[in-house]
Amino acid sequence: MVGAALEWPDGRREVAYYRRFGGPHAEAQLLSRQTGRLPRGVRLYVTLEPCSVVGKTPACVEAILRARPGRVIVSCLDPDPRVAGRGIAQLRAEGIAVELGAGANLSLALNHGFHLAHRRGRALVRLKIASSLDGKLATQSGESQWITSPESRREVHRERASADAVVVGAGTLAADDPELTVRHLRGPEPSKIVIDSTLRTDPRARIWRSARAAGWIEAETAERRTGNFLGTEVAGGVRWIRRPRLIVATLSSVSAERIAERRRDGWEVWTLPSDRTGRVSLKAFSRRAARAGLHRLLVEAGPTLAGALLAERLVDELSLYLGPLVLGGDRSWSAGFAAAALARAPQFELVKQRRIGADCWIEFRRRDWSEGLAL
Q1: Where in the sequence numbering do the catalytic residues fall?
Q2: For the segment 349-373, what is each residue's pLDDT rounded down to a tens digit?
Q3: In terms of C-beta density within 10 A (0-12 exposed, 13-18 middle, 19 or more buried), how is residue 205 classed?
Q4: So what CATH class is 3-110?
Q5: CATH number for the domain formed by residue range(s) 123-366
Q6: How far apart are CA 41 and CA 43, in angstroms?
Q7: CA-angle at 307, arms to 195 and 151, nearest 5°
């Protein structure tokens, strides 16, 4: 997500932003509205370093060099190794003054998962929890539908639409048999991932049936494919849409025959090493997701998976939906984790909060989230 703005000496401003995958970049949109060179003193602001490589669109650096703004202010470097400072270097080499760092934290947060993937080699994990005020997922008898309001459940679908993939554990899949689709609003379908160390879950669960009904399993027959997007020839170019994937992450020690069965059913199978508990290594899983271009994961976890992610310090964001009731008992969403000491507990900072229906929604981000992301 990238934004750009032109500012004239008289204070007038014009803005643009990157609207869709494969479409014109923010800088290109903005500069295409101008004729010839910009007047003296006009400044160009961009939230991410202008690209210097030709991909699905021309390099933005070339458009900037033609327009010749008086100064370019860049919030943060593009961590993609194909760019990574080259765009700024090219502008400076052609005599354009460039400032770096204004509003860096805001711009880093805008593309947190993208920066994590390139700087640390792993995906961003956003843990979504719907619980009572005292952090319980269900009553002692197991009743859980519904702790939160219909409005909160609709908001969860909005979160799914903005994620690259929705992730659940084998326990949640067995207990709830969810579809993990986007409903109640219009939005792109994310990929679906099940973490299943032993491949014990039903290969034709509702998540599989809904994917098959939507035609995902046959997506490879589309005219064009690149990573997580499908391209279809249309008048004037190519229209790109998200290509949802149905993935199960399991241990590399699982029998080849069982893996082959899943693949014949249309699952994409990731075979990963184990952690010290004998389950799928969540660190390896996060790295695998980043390599697959799934930079932003929405994890709808039960206590076991949530606890394991906390123990591995992989939770980057918390999205908490709190229903206005107290359940008591021991069915806590974090029951799978226990901090050895206060000093070693994962720490988060408040980002925002608001009322949704009868519920309270709170967003947190890990306190050290930006360390090592900016150059």
Answers
A1: 27
A2: 999 999 999 999 999 999 999 887 7
A3: middle
A4: alpha beta
A5: 3.40.430.10
A6: 6
A7: 80
